[in-house]
């Protein structure tokens, strides 16, 4: 199998994730898009690991999964806090930093 | 009795308890868990669990002590035959004056008893966990357990009915466990873990009454200040780990430092880093500021943690890794080094601060800082045994003083202010008074109480006095030590005078505390008397400097390690003249303070004004004295330095820079240019050709204004737009790289 | 039927090779379509369910690459836990279960252009570097190998990640609790 197949799949997934992060207004959906990005990275890790015949890729993929779990936990906690304070999780309404 | 039997049975080898010392910290650790789990549901709310656990630990620690003494005796019996060989083989030639001062006492090596299992092993790095028991550990085990036990007993009365009574005893147990782990740690990693654990316990117990803001602030301050030093510890331990060929083993590190296998520069850097740790944990200048604030915790905690045991962890660590410091700072033959300077400055600085405090616990806290300065100074000048001996005696009399202060405050409706809440308690609380006086005398170094012997030994160890043959000639340290002795005696006289003499100035009717408070006081006072006799100087009463007899130098004989893992330090020869002079200085300090307060008392009687309302003598008419007093009251402005200068200095500019960048660099600059141009244009308008210049100015103003509006529109405050810019920018940069790399 | 198609596509008779390629193609297509739905669907719960398909697809790709342990972990952690967390997030924030997104055309345009640009750069880089490099996946990496690696060579990162997880746990509680 071509290495490129996996890399291109990952690239496509990554870009779809980026699109989601940038275009979505609902904070939960933004977090889901972040998951897409992380999974794309993981596919790259494992594909390169298989390519180089080392388990390092897989190990770091596992670390990424762990970090992703932590990220979701903290991210959702922040979304909950946002909801509690503003009764909305629309990211376009959060613009306190407007210059 | 049991202890002796057990010791006899196993004396053949290293002694069962010596090899299994890990049980001693394990028991209070279990007690901690047990109290947390079931403490509240048991009768007495869990204090008996802690009491039983610490008692068991105390018994076992005593067994360790007895077995260690036998171990040393055995080593000497076996070593007697091959004495010449072993002494020659072990001691290096750099003993210098050691042999002369050491006398005929054979320096037979006494191997420390180690017992360890592998914790984890990874890529050739083996980390072990285990115990290292030698004279120092055994002594510390006994001191920690005995004081912890007495504090437990005392606490059952003192914090009776507290809202977090169970929690309090749980943390006392955890503290005891961690401190015991610290003293028997076999490697520096364990030392580090236990070091952090005692820090956590200290934090929890200082903030025991955290509902009040100052208490939780004090706890945070202690924790954060300790973090500063802990960084030093972590770096120092890491350096030593790599320097000793990837080993945390304390014995191995010491042996390698001793044999010169570690480069001197590495030792120096490691020693400096570890010194930072000592400065924070043992309250040395300039990181001492947390210790007085730590008095916000319950008084028994102050006695146990912030006077007798935890704060000496730094001193213990230096004593434990002494080869590193001894060779790193090149202590022998020198007359000044970092450790000695820090100790000496702390000794004087702390003692001076003690004069201006009205809170009895704060006086004692500064006194503790000052005494820790003595110990660190002693280690700095090479007087290892003197430092450890002072640690030993200080633990008893300082615990006694703190518990006495607690007893007084318990009687005076929890006031700690000597000027407004105390006075005249001599008649009302005789037991507290007498134990306090005994402990004070011991602290001030009055013959023949404990403090006299240890302080004298430190002064001898500086080698500054004639014919004392120390490791070097530390004249400055000798002088500062003597001045410190006078100051100590003087401020303690002040405390006693304000607390126990004169009229009662508080409200309510004070009463003597109950037996659970006074009995520990009496026991500690007894120790404050006799503890010093364990190490009478050679040649005292009988025997000569070359042949110690009976009680002479027993402490040194059993506690000071002899072997490859300990540097061969020189011992100063005791000097009668020095002892007499230092005692005279101390007594004159006490006398001066007493005379001053007697005068004040007479004036207060004559003028019919309260003692505390009188102006503070010399400071009213002498301007330098007044400004010095202000300096002391403000604690040398160190807190201001930390909070207002360092923290604000770091926080302020960054915040201001960020604010400036937001306000000025993006909007402001552009807008300002526009405005400035407009104003400038108007000025020019009156002087120059209206048409040309006016038009240009207006154009540039409009341009600047427009640019400002444009740039401003980027700052939408919308996260996703920022993210889009970020991603887009990164992509473009990546694309540019790609083009340059592939073509 | 399938066998004849395979034989024509791959005259050398390397059945396994072809089967893998076909599996990859099918799974990848499903993944991309689902991923597209995740970022475009107007129903939040549907998005979560599409995300499940993508994550399962990623697990399938892992197994295709011979990385069994991470594939199983992917199923357990992502599909088992993270998705549940997301559904809770949807529930607790009471997002409307129906259509929610109002169209903001310029934002869509901006996001899409960034995405396409990014894909272009990455695809170019990847194709340029690994034109027809093959991955040899005949030797799968076993769980034993992975565990050996984690607990020897990568022990310290592993411990660090554990501490990170703990910190995130505490952080999440602190942030989300009502006080």
What distinguishing features does this structure have?
A: 99 residues, mainly alpha, B: 743 residues, 2 strands, 3% strand, globular
Verbal overview:
The complex is a heterotrimer of chains A (99), B (743) and C (179). Chain A is 79% helix and 0% strand. Chain A has helices spanning 3-23, 27-52, 56-86. The model of chain A has no long low-confidence stretch (mean pLDDT 88). Chain B is mainly α and 743 residues long. Chain B is 70% helix and 3% strand. Chain B has 31 helices and 2 strands. A two-stranded antiparallel sheet of chain B has the order 1-2. In chain B, helix 4 (47-81) packs antiparallel against helix 7 and helix 12 (264-281) crosses helix 16. The longest helix of chain B is centred in the last third of the chain and has 50 residues, at 638-687. The model of chain B is unreliable at 1-12 and 82-106 (pLDDT under 50). Helix content of chain C is 75%, strand content 0%. In chain C, helix 2 runs antiparallel to helix 3 (44-64) and helix 3 (44-64) runs antiparallel to helix 4. Chains in contact: A-B, A-C, B-C. Chains A and B meet through helix 1 of A and helix 29 and helix 31 of B.
Would you kindly provide a brief summary of this structure?
The complex is a heterotrimer of chains A (99), B (743) and C (179). Chain A is mainly α.
Which structural class do the helices and strands of chain A define? mainly alpha
SSE order of chain C in H/E notation? HHHHHHH
Shape of chain A: elongated
Structural category of chain C: mainly alpha
Separation of the first and last Cα atoms of chain A = 51 Å
- The helix content of chain A, as a percent range, equals over 70%
Average of per-residue pLDDT values of chain A: 88
Number of strands of chain A: 0
DSSP strand content of chain C: under 5%
The DSSP helix count of chain C reads 7
Which pair has the most extensive contact? A-C, 70 and 88 residues
Tell me about the largest β-sheet of chain A: none
Oligomer: heterotrimer
Unreliable runs of chain A: none
Q: Count all strands of chain C and give the number.
A: 0
Number of helices of chain A: 3
Distance between the termini of chain C: 66 Å
What does the radius of gyration of chain C come to?
21 Å
Helicity of chain C, in percent?
A: over 70%
Radius of gyration of chain A: 17 Å
Sheet bearing the most strands of chain C, described?
A: none
